[in-house]
Write a structure and sequence with these properties.
The complex is a heterodimer of chains A (about 130) and B (about 600).
Chain A lengths: L2 H21 L11 H17 L6 H30 L6 H30 L5
Helix pairs in contact in A: 1-2, 1-4, 2-3, 3-4
Chain B lengths: L3 H10 L17 H14 L1 H20 L2 E2 L5 E2 L3 H12 L13 H30 L1 H17 L5 E5 L3 H12 L3 E6 L2 H9 L8 E3 L5 H6 L7 E6 L4 H14 L5 E4 L3 H8 L5 E3 L1 H14 L1 H11 L17 E5 L3 H12 L3 E6 L10 E3 L5 H6 L5 E6 L4 H14 L4 E5 L6 H7 L3 E3 L1 H13 L2 H9 L5 H15 L6 E5 L9 H5 L5 H4 L12 E8 L2 E4 L12 E6 L1 H12 L1 H9 L7 H7 L19
Parallel strand pairs in B: 3-4, 3-6, 4-5, 6-7, 7-8, 9-10, 9-12, 10-11, 12-13, 13-14
Antiparallel strand pairs in B: 1-2, 15-18, 16-17, 16-18
Classes of the chains: A mainly alpha (about 130), B alpha/beta (about 600).
C-alpha cells in the first residue's frame, strides 16, 4: 500500500462527495444547500488540484485538467453566492441559489470524471 | 483530378518539395530533460501549497463559527466571505483592523492563533519557492529551455562550436566579423558567460553543458536544418572524438572540423566519415619546415590564415643548416623533431625523463638547468626549441639559452594565454600558441573553401612567387589583410556578363578596370581561379574567363562594390569591358539597337599592373 496513493484517492473522492452533498436537493431552495459545504468542497478541491501537480503522464494531465475545471466552477459559484448575499439588495433569492447550485453541478461533473479516471487507473494497475 | 480547385491547389502547393530536408537518421528528444526538471519543481511545491490552503480553510472556518456582537448588542456571526476577507488581509500582514465590527474576546483568541499559523504557512511557501528558484538544476533547466528555443528560432546557416576556449573565442571573433552565425556549447559556465561579455555583432546562443552528450548537441541544433558545420574545439580529445562521432552518425552530410593533439585520436576520428582533423603540434612542425624552406610562403600563409584586418607578420629568417636543440621530447617535441630531421637538420634532444628507446643525441636532464644546457653545446648550435608544457620552464630555458649564445634562433611553445605578454617581451623568433594555430587553421578551412584550396596549393609555387604576391597585396591593399571574397560567374552573381562569357570575350584584366575610369585598375588582387575542379593560383590579366568560373579576390569593400556593379549592371559592364556606352534603359537600348562588341581589343592589358 502506498500512502501517497491513499491521500491522493482520499482527496479526490472527498472533493467529489462534498460537491455532491452541496448539489443534492431542490435547486432553487437555499435551505437545502449548506454554504459551509460549498466552502469545504472548494477547499478540498484546491488541495486535490495541488496534489495533481507534477505528474508527467497523459492520465495525470487529464486529472489536473478536470480539477482545474472543478475549481473554476466552484470559485464561480462562491462569487455568485457572495454577490447575492452581500451585494445585491434582494439577498439570496431562488434565482441566485439556482445559479450557485447549477455551477456547483458543473463542478460535480468534473469531479465525477476525476473519480472515473481514478478508478480506471486503479483497475488498469496490474502490479498488485 | 477533374476538379479545377484541386488542380489549382496542386499547382500552388504541389511542387513544394522537401527543400531543406534534414537527413538525420535519428531524432533526439532534447526537451524532455528540461521539462522533467520543471515537473520536479512543481512536485516540490505541493507540500507548501497544500499547507497554505489548509491553514486558510481552518482559519476562515473557525472565524465564521465563533459568535460576535454587532453595535446594537445582538449576537451575529461573520459570513464566510467576511472572514475570508479578514484572513486575507491579516495573513498577508496588511491589517485593516477588525471589520465590520470590533471583535469579541473569543474571536480575538482565534485570530491570534490563526495569525501565527498563517505567518508560518506563508514563510514556508515563499521560502520553498525562493529555494527552488535558486536551485541549480532548476536554473540549468531554464537555461537549456531558453537556449533550445533560441537555437530553434535561428533562420540562417550557423556553425555549431563545441568548446569555447581560447581557440573558440578567436574563431568566434573572426566568424562574427564575417557575419557568420554561431551556436556555442561549453562545459564551463564561466566561458558561456564570456560570450555575453564579448562584444559580438550577432546574438550568439551559448549553453553550459557537456558537449559529449548527444542530447546537448541536439539541443544546440545538430539536427537543425540550418546547421552548416560542427567544430569540435574542446581541450579534451575524448570529448572532441565524441562530438565528431555524434555529428558523423546523426548528420553525415555536415562538415566536421576537430581538434586533437594525439595521432591515435586523429586515427579514430577518421574512422567516422571524413572530418578535417587539426593537430596543432603537427601543423607547427609543418610550419617550421615551411619557414626553413620558404620563409615568404610561410609569411603569406600566416597572414592569410589570420583573418581580415590582420597585420603583415614579419618574415623570419631561420638558419637553414646547422644543429638544433630540442628541449622537451613530449608529443610536441616528437612531431617537431621529426619535421626538423625530415628537413635534413641535426637535432640534439634534452629531456628530463629517461626515454624508453635509445635515440641518437639525447641528453637526459632538466633543460632549465644551465649546466645541462651547456652540455648541449649551445655555442655551436643554430636554433633552440623550448617545447615543454610549462611556460615558466620554457621562459627560463629561453633566457639561459640566449645568454649562452645570443645568435640562436629561438622557437617556443606557449601553453597559457596569460603568458602571451612574457613571450612577447622575450622576442622569440617563432612562437607556437596551440589554440591560435587551431583557430587559424579552422578559419581557413571553414570561412571559404577556396581559401583552403589556395593554402594547400600555395607551397608548391615556391618562395619567390609568394614574395611577389605579398608585394602585390601590400601595394594594392596596404599592410592589413583585406577581406577575401569569392565570386561565381553565373547568372545570379554576374548577370551583366551573361552572353559575353559564353563567347569567350571576358578577360580578367578588363574585368578589373574601374567603372568610373576604365584606365584605372581596381585595387583588387585575384588569388585563385577555380574551373571544373582545377585551380589556377593568381590568374594573370590575360586569363579568359568562362561561365561558372569561381574567383577568390582580396580587396577592400569599396573596390568590391565597384566590381559588383560591373558584374550586375549591363551598361557598366559594357563600359568596363569594352569601353562602350550603351543606354541603361530597355527602351533606349531597343532604339539604338547596337550590340556591344569588344572593338577595343587593341588596348587590352594596357592598364594591367602585373609586376
Amino acid at each position: 500500500m502506498n500512502l501517497e496513493k491513499v491521500i491522493f484517492g482520499f482527496f479526490v473522492l472527498l472533493a467529489a462527495t462534498l460537491n455532491f452533498g452541496f448539489f443534492i436537493g431542490d435547486i432553487g431552495n437555499p435551505a437545502v444547500h449548506n454554504i459551509y459545504e460549498l466552502f469545504a468542497a472548494l477547499a478540498v478541491s484546491l488541495v486535490a488540484t495541488v496534489l495533481k501537480f507534477g505528474d508527467r503522464t497523459q492520465i495525470g494531465a487529464v486529472h489536473l485538467a478536470t480539477s482545474l475545471v472543478a475549481d473554476l466552477q466552484l470559485v464561480a459559484a462562491s462569487v455568485v453566492w457572495i454577490w447575492a448575499e452581500e451585494i445585491s439588495a434582494d439577498g439570496l433569492t431562488t434565482v441566485s441559489t439556482a445559479s450557485v447550485v447549477s455551477l456547483s453541478g458543473g463542478a460535480l461533473l468534473a469531479n465525477l470524471v476525476s473519480v472515473v479516471l481514478l478508478v480506471t487507473e486503479t483497475v488498469t494497475f496490474h502490479r498488485g | 483530378m477533374s476538379n479545377p480547385l484541386l488542380i489549382f491547389w496542386a499547382q500552388l502547393f504541389g511542387r513544394r518539395g522537401p527543400v531543406n530536408r534534414v537527413v538525420s537518421r535519428a531524432h533526439i528528444e532534447s526537451s524532455s530533460q528540461a521539462s522533467s526538471t520543471i515537473f520536479l519543481v512543481m512536485r516540490r511545491m505541493r507540500a507548501p501549497l497544500i499547507i497554505l490552503i489548509v491553514i486558510f480553510s481552518i482559519s476562515v472556518l473557525g472565524l465564521t463559527l465563533i459568535p460576535g456582537i454587532d453595535p446594537s448588542g445582538q449576537p451575529v456571526r461573520l459570513s464566510i466571505f467576511e472572514s475570508f476577507y479578514f484572513m486575507s488581509y491579516t495573513a498577508t500582514t496588511i491589517g485593516f483592523g477588525e471589520l465590520p465590527w470590533p471583535f469579541t474576546p473569543g474571536q480575538r483568541l482565534w485570530v491570534t492563533f490563526s495569525i501565527y499559523l498563517s505567518v508560518v504557512g506563508w514563510a514556508y511557501a515563499i521560502g520553498s519557492l525562493l529555494t527552488l528558484i535558486q536551485d541549480r538544476s532548476f536554473r540549468q533547466a531554464l537555461a537549456l529551455r531558453r537556449f533550445t528555443s533560441k537555437v530553434a528560432r535561428l533562420r540562417e546557416p550557423f556553425l555549431l562550436v563545441a568548446g569555447y576556449g581560447r581557440a573558440g573565442e578567436l574563431l568566434a571573433k573572426a566568424f562574427d566579423e564575417l557575419g557568420q552565425q554561431l551556436v556555442v556549447i561549453d562545459e564551463s559556465s564561466d566561458r558561456v558567460d564570456a560570450i555575453e561579455l564579448g562584444s559580438f555583432h550577432a546574438d550568439i546562443p551559448g549553453l553550459a553543458a557537456d558537449a559529449a552528450n548527444p542530447h546537448h548537441l541536439s539541443a544546440a541544433g545538430l539536427d537543425h536544418p540550418f546547421c552548416a558545420g560542427v567544430l569540435a574545439l574542446t581541450n579534451d580529445d575524448e570529448t572532441n572524438l565524441a562530438v565528431t562521432m555524434t555529428a558523423a552518425l546523426l548528420r553525415p552530410d555536415l562538415p566536421v572540423v576537430s581538434r586533437t593533439i594525439s595521432a591515435q585520436i586523429a586515427e579514430r576520428m577518421h574512422a567516422f566519415g571524413t572530418p578535417a582533423v587539426v593537430n596543432p603540434f603537427d601543423r607547427f612542425g609543418e610550419h617550421l619546415r615551411l619557414v626553413l624552406n620558404a620563409p615568404a610562403s610561410y609569411q603569406l600563409l600566416v597572414w592569410l590564415e589570420a583573418g581580415p584586418g590582420a597585420g603583415l607578420p614579419d618574415r623570419g629568417r631561420p638558419p637553414t643548416d646547422g644543429r638544433w636543440v630540442m628541449c622537451g621530447y613530449g608529443r610536441f617535441g616528437r612531431e617537431v623533431t621529426a619535421d626538423l630531421r625530415a628537413a635534413g637538420l641535426e637535432v640534439t634532444i634534452i629531456e628530463p625523463a629517461e626515454l624508453g628507446e635509445s635515440e641518437p643525441g639525447v641528453i637526459v636532464g632538466d633543460a632549465s638547468d644551465s649546466e645541462v644546457l651547456a652540455r648541449a653545446d649551445l655555442a655551436s648550435a643554430v636554433g633552440l626549441v623550448a617545447g615543454t608544457d610549462n611556460d615558466t620552464t620554457n621562459l627560463s630555458m629561453l633566457t639561459a639559452a640566449r645568454r649562452l649564445n645570443p645568435q640562436l634562433f629561438l622557437a617556443a611553445r606557449q601553453n597559457r594565454p596569460t603568458s602571451a605578454a612574457l613571450f612577447e617581451a622575450m622576442r622569440v623568433d617563432a612562437l607556437l600558441v596551440p589554440t591560435e594555430v587551431v583557430a587559424h587553421e579552422v578559419y581557413a578551412q571553414i570561412s571559404t573553401p577556396m581559401l583552403w584550396r589556395f593554402i594547400q596549393e600555395m607551397p608548391a609555387r615556391g618562395d619567390q612567387w609568394a614574395a611577389d604576391l605579398i608585394q602585390q597585396l601590400r601595394h594594392n591593399c596596404g599592410r592589413e589583410l583585406p577581406a577575401l571574397w569569392k565570386v561565381r560567374l553565373d547568372l545570379e552573381q554576374a548577370p551583366a556578363l551573361g552572353g559575353w562569357l559564353g563567347e569567350g570575350k571576358v578577360v580578367l584584366g578588363d574585368l578589373l578596370r574601374s567603372p568610373e575610369d576604365r584606365e584605372r585598375r581596381l585595387r583588387v588582387v585575384p588569388l585563385l581561379l577555380l574551373r571544373d575542379g582545377t585551380a589556377v593560383l593568381t590568374p594573370d590579366g590575360e586569363t579568359v574567363l568562362a561561365r561558372n568560373d569561381e574567383l577568390l579576390f582580396a580587396g577592400h569593400g569599396s573596390e568590391r562594390r565597384e566590381l559588383e556593379s560591373t558584374l550586375v549592371v549591363d551598361s557598366t559592364g559594357a563600359y568596363v569591358l569594352f569601353g562602350q556606352h550603351i543606354p541603361s534603359s530597355w527602351v533606349w537600348r531597343k532604339l539604338s539597337r547596337k550590340k556591344p562588341t569588344p572593338s577595343t581589343v587593341g588596348d587590352r592589358g594596357g592598364t594591367s599592373t602585373r609586376p
